[in-house]
Design a protein that fits this description.
Blueprint: H1 2-15, H2 19-35, H3 39-55, H4 59-62, H5 68-76
Length: 79
């Protein structure tokens, strides 16, 4: 439950475009999920962390060929 709450806080930071704090909180979510052996929550936290990072990039960098692999991974990622 605590990991899910932490994830929610991370989503709020991401929505407010507090990207550095959103990433920090999503990493914490992953650590909490690992501590209670919650694979699905950890996977979702990792995907959210990646989404936040890509969203925070300028469009030319976000859509660059070098990020294509990450964007494709998010298509099948949970969450």
């Amino acid at each position: 439950m605590a990991a899910e709450w932490t994830q929610f806080v991370g989503w709020l930071h991401a929505e407010a475009r507090n990207d550095a704090e959103a990433v920090r909180v999503q990493v914490e979510t992953g650590e909490q999920a690992d501590a209670v052996d919650s694979g699905p929550l950890g996977d979702r936290a990792a995907a959210d962390n990646l989404r936040t990072g890509l969203t925070g990039l300028p469009a030319d960098q976000r859509d660059a060929e070098g990020t294509q692999e990450y964007r494709q991974a998010l298509v099948v990622a949970p969450g």
